[in-house]
Amino acid sequence: MSVQNVSFPSNGGQAHGYLQLPDSGTGPGVIVIQEWWGLTDHIADITRRLAAEGFVALAPDLYGGSTTHDAAEAQQLMTELPADRAAKDLSGAVDYLLAHDAVTSTTVGVIGFCMGGGFVLQLAADRSEQISAAVPFYGFPQDPADVAPRIRGAVQGHYATKDRIPLDAVRDLFGQLKNSELHVYDAGHAFLNDENLIGTYDPGAAKLAWSRAVTFLNKHLAR
């Protein structure tokens, strides 16, 4: 399977991203939100893996083509991307998928990692009617008190014990969600990323978390 480069209207302009269709040609829609490194080969691989599971996967490019392997540059790129603007950009991806002929679901799912995990929860709040399944990996929203009451879809979280994100804050957030499950792994940040630049990839945790995520998306996205 090859990833397609696509463009779609978003936030008053044109957004770009990677789109991957399953071999069947149709399936439920899932948005994939990048880590702070940008739209890397790892994120492209996530879209392929989701397509292999039968989903139509779209990964929007939030950095306009920029990627990096330098943490300081990644921090700068993320800082220059305000959460509200990113959510508006991502909203166009929701509309694009729901209008796509290959998408069989009436709602979409969203999965994201690190920075993208926080945007998952923001988008699930902003487009609560259209997102029925949200899967954040080791990410936290800028304003949890704002997003928690507005999320209507189901949420499955994947977090790590050896991470900078305080688990007490994560548990408090998930305790406020109406339909959620929280999984915590004895691992480090970015444990799912097999191209991990910080050396914390954990094959066992990654395999278990991926299996849980796919099962969750299948459950909450009608085919």
TrEMBL record:
Enzyme Commission code(s) on record: 3.1.-.-
A Pfam family recorded for this sequence: DLH
Domain Dienelactone hydrolase: 17-220
UniProt key word Hydrolase: yes
Keywords: Hydrolase
Gene3D superfamilies cross-referenced by the UniProt entry: alpha/beta hydrolase
Gene Ontology terms for molecular function: hydrolase activity
Top EC class, one word: hydrolase
Name of the molecule in the record: Dienelactone hydrolase family protein
UniProt source species: Actinoplanes subglobosus
